[in-house]
What does this fold into?
Amino acid sequence: MMSASMPAWTLTENASLKALNTFHVDAVAAQLLEVFEPSVLPEVLALPQVAGQPLLVLGSGSNVLIAGDVAGTVLVFGNRNIEILEHRADHTVVRAGAGVNWHGLVMWSLQQGLSGLENLALIPGTAGASPIQNIGAYGAQVGEFIQAVDAWDRVEQTWVRLDTEACRFGYRDSVFKHEPDRYLITSIELRLPLLHELRLGYAGIGEEMQAMGVELPVAADVANAVINIRRRKLPDPDVLGNAGSFFKNPVLPLEQVEVLLQHYPELPVFPADQDDRRKVSAAWMIETCGWKGYRDGDSGVAPSHALVLVNYGAASGEQLLALARRISASVLETFGVPIEPEPRLIGAQW
Ligand code: FAD
Ligand code: EPU
It folds into this structure.
């Protein structure tokens, strides 16, 4: 519940976005609209200062590259409630407001004795953004647990509830990615099992569990193992600006992968959604092209992970994008494989 003194929304002009994107790119939004009570959305969006202007919705900005100042309004959700909607013998249904911190939600669910989200520990960002690219890590994707997404549909000007099928989840993909800013997601509903088979197969989890001395793992142990691995591999955005993997792992036809493997037998290959396709490691190709640890001014490639572009301080969105283009051109030239950015580019086209 909102307290009586808390506003349902606030509007700030010329707002810095530096703390609102994990690359810490210094950009300004013409207006920043914070909505704490989503039911007011239709009336706030109809305000003369907001209506008819471009609108960009942001969570924690951990999957965006902002190239330049943002015209119009940046909308951020500040509703951070977690509610239990239903307790059943084998599962519990949980609703999380769009503004809930994702990792906080994972930890809360484990404390409640619920499982499912443990492999997704320590992913930055908000619950509201989690369905956009169907966040995934260590053998799990959030779409497996999402029962419904509640949103304001800006095209139909109505509240909508999308079930799992309507979300059309895929690898780093969903219906929301194809129509950016159409659906303003106000909350997600997760169906979390009380018990389920733990996913320990992803490279590194078993070894980490052994190092931790865990013999009979429970979901919380998996989360701790994932947290340890992630802390070693991925730079902390509070210390070194980044947006996680900058490129998606390309999904290629099996025949093309077989040819690649003849030339590069060490190329890591993973299963894909379709049987006749395989996901190949973009990090490996980028590292093989010599980019790991590269630095040009304040933009660079993380020394700990070739897929992560980093901002050492004052890199602009344009400079980071220029580096991304050089990397992708060299991967294309060496391997004949196009790689595409994972973060949303704001104010630029790929
Ligand atoms: P933002 O970056 O603010 O927004 C991302 C997109 O979602 C934008 O298009 C935005 O318009 C849209 N959006 C945000 N909120 C809403 C809303 N309420 N309604 C409608 N649209 C919305 N991702 C993974 O999948 N797996 C990982 O393992 C992973 N690891 C990461 C590690 C690091 C260090 C970092 C920095 C990022 C990582 N990411 C990973 C990427 C990122 O954490 C996720 O994509 C996350 O879901 C983004 O959440 P956000 O709130 O920061 O969204
Ligand atoms: N690798 C290299 N060089 C590197 C890093 C990795 O060759 O510098 C090789 C590893 O040896 C390994 C393979 O690449 O065989 C895969 O590496 P990793 O397990 O780190 O996974 P990834 O494919 O690079 C993906 C996701 C991550 C997610 C991890 C764990 C994408 C685009 N990225 O990374 O998600 O955390 O798997 O599941 O699918 C993100 O989306 O932002 C993100 C961090």
Remarks:
- The chain has three domains: 9-77, 82-193, 241-346.
- The pocket of flavin-adenine dinucleotide (ligand 1) is lined by residues 22, 57-64, 77, 98, 123-126, 128-130, 132-133, 135-137, 180, 183-185, 234, 237, 242-244, 344 (CB under 6 Å).
- Residues 82-193 form a domain with the Uridine Diphospho-n-acetylenolpyruvylglucosamine Reductase; domain 3 fold (CATH 3.30.465.10).
- The first helix runs from residue 41 to 45.
